[in-house]
Amino acid sequence: MPTDPYWNHNTHYHPWILDQVPAHARTALDIGCGDGLLARKLATRCDAVLGVDLDGQAVAAAPTAPNVHYEKADFRDVDDTFDVVTAVATLHHVPLAEGMAALRALVAPGGVLAVVGLWKMHPLTDIGYLPLLPVIWATDRRHRAVAGGPEVAIRDPEDTLADIREAAATHLPGAQLRRRLLWRYTLLWQNTGHCA
Ligand SMILES: C[S@@+](CC[C@H](N)C(=O)[O-])C[C@H]1O[C@@H](n2cnc3c(N)ncnc32)[C@H](O)[C@@H]1O
Q1: What's the pLDDT at 10?
Q2: Is the CB of 154 within 6 Å of ligand 1?
Q3: For domain 11-121+149-190, which architecture applies?
């Protein structure tokens, strides 16, 4: 397993993603792969990993690793299926319903989709974070020395968690969505092969 060169609110959830990789998984796709850190971690579990990102410079600079291939591409144009599909801080870069439908189409039967995402927060609906702030600050402080990340495009999320839950119910039925400590949600969906 590569040693993380940095820590942030996205890499914090990489262990959760790796825990979702089914034992039978051979192929994986990381969309919005940035510098490829997660793709390289997935390659410790899968025989063939593809990382795609719209940012050609990021994928050109991504460190090479056995069984990892990077491509400059829009994930909505990828025409294949994978045993594992991952999306970290990327789904909110495209229209929600379109992005979820595209992700769903990329998951092979029996495969899983694991998303770490951002939503548009609101003080009323997200008031539950208030008592958690000391824990969040302590977590950030504990990782202060290694805080960082790749230089990639960021975007403010436009969808609320309610929007995301509603879209998931339509496009990813049965998905498990959980609000997490570090301003992220996780979504897990399995392609059981049943129609929505
Ligand atoms: C906030 S960054 C996250 C990068 C990486 N997943 C991480 O956790 O560090 C979002 C990435 O998604 C990429 N991106 C945005 N829209 C995309 C699309 N339609 N297809 C592929 N990549 C996309 C951006 O170029 C950017 O690198």
Answers
A1: 98
A2: yes
A3: 3-Layer(aba) Sandwich (3.40)
